[in-house]
Design goal:
The structure is a homodimer of 216-residue chains. Chain A is of the alpha+beta class. Chain A is built from 6 helices and 7 strands, in the order ααβααβββαβαββ. The first copy, chain A, has a 4-stranded antiparallel sheet with strand order 1-2-6-5. A two-stranded antiparallel ribbon of chain A has the order 3-4. Strand 7 of chain A pairs parallel with strand 1 of chain B, so a sheet runs across the interface.
Chain lengths: 216, 216
């Protein structure tokens, strides 16, 4: 798989076959994750892989109950669609997301990305220094993971909806309170094909030298 | 360039030659950025590319002054090194980061990732729903950008230190207040080679089925 093609065709996959994902495959993806950049190279991540069937089912239950609250809350605040294509696209994704919510526990494996609470406040005699969010140091690693899975033909989806019941997830998996679960990524052989996902064209949202200047 | 090799060998590059980076190359990287996932596919990003020499110099000045405050503040809170190798590695990175701070304006181009303020609070009759941070929807796109640049032999670094003077940057580039500048990525042909950066081994920070369980 060529690098650029792999990036372009890595999209969320939400339906999986019953085929397994091996430990070596998961570790290979985690090795890609750790090569992502982090502020001051602090690497603020730990990984928790769930493969045990009973534990997967319990995580799946937490996820489904989270999604049951998320879905109607999202629909209640959704702005009007700008086109029929937009609406059709939303409906397809919503159906796939519902499917994932009902079957997450059946995914061959799931990987949780954990970030320790970082209390590195920088300051000088002029006051506190804002040098950005710790999330900047962990989501690039998640993306590397998704791409490395793509390289193996393994489908993934970056989910965060479980956070509605994050404490239940911590309790189930014995995750210490000081860790935030920043992503839960189900993995499996995808039903359906990888491909270029629907996006607004980059050119339409790119400015040159001053904000809003659409061309060089 | 093979996908997995590209991921593994994309590291921060902080010294650049004077060679240009073309508009087509930059757009190609931005097309990769937009293929990243975002919550509900909201794609909460805009890009601002700076190539004009005078503007680059002005951005470089803001960056250098930010770094001048960041560097001593970081050194003041640094924990003791765990080994001589750790210390040597830190010193090398610190020297390269200092170099970047002093020469950012000379980079062939720089790309700013802008995220609009997102006020999508989800709630139901039981209360507000935490479904994660909007940063989860933008840093994967930044990572895609860095990898697509790697594919072209272009070096990059994900920086956030400019945030100390973020408002100056907004004023200079006419960025509306509602956008947060979540990353500033200088680009250029690298001095030095791409390669696998120093990281803690993935196996040492991976748990299986329960937190802290180090093997399956």
């Amino acid at each position: 798989m060529e690098l650029y093609e792999g990036i372009m065709t890595t999209r969320a996959m939400r339906r999986f076959t019953a085929e397994p994902v091996t430990r070596d495959e998961i570790v290979r993806c985690l090795k890609a994750a750790v090569q992502a950049p982090s502020g001051g190279n602090i690497q603020p991540w730990q990984f928790l892989v769930v493969t045990d069937a009973e534990t997967r089912a319990a995580v799946g239950d937490i996820y489904r109950r989270s999604y049951d609250r998320y879905e109607p809350a999202l629909l209640a605040v959704l702005p009007p669609f700008r086109s029929d294509e937009d609406e059709a696209s939303f409906r397809r994704t919503a159906a796939a997301s519902r499917h994932l919510a009902d079957h997450l526990g059946d995914a061959a494996a799931m990987v949780l990305f954990l970030m320790p609470a970082i209390s590195m406040t920088l300051a000088d005699d002029q006051g506190d220094l804002d040098v950005g969010t710790p999330y900047a140091s962990v989501y690039p690693a998640v993306q590397n993971f998704l791409l490395a899975a793509r390289d193996l033909g393994i489908g993934t989806a970056l989910t965060t909806v479980y956070r509605i019941y994050q404490q239940e997830l911590r309790d189930l998996l014995e995750i210490p309170e000081r860790y935030e679960v920043v992503a839960l990524v189900p993995m499996g052989r995808p039903v359906g094909r990888f491909g270029v996902a629907r996006r607004r064209p980059a050119e339409a949202i790119t400015s040159w030298d001053r904000f809003g200047r659409r061309d060089t």
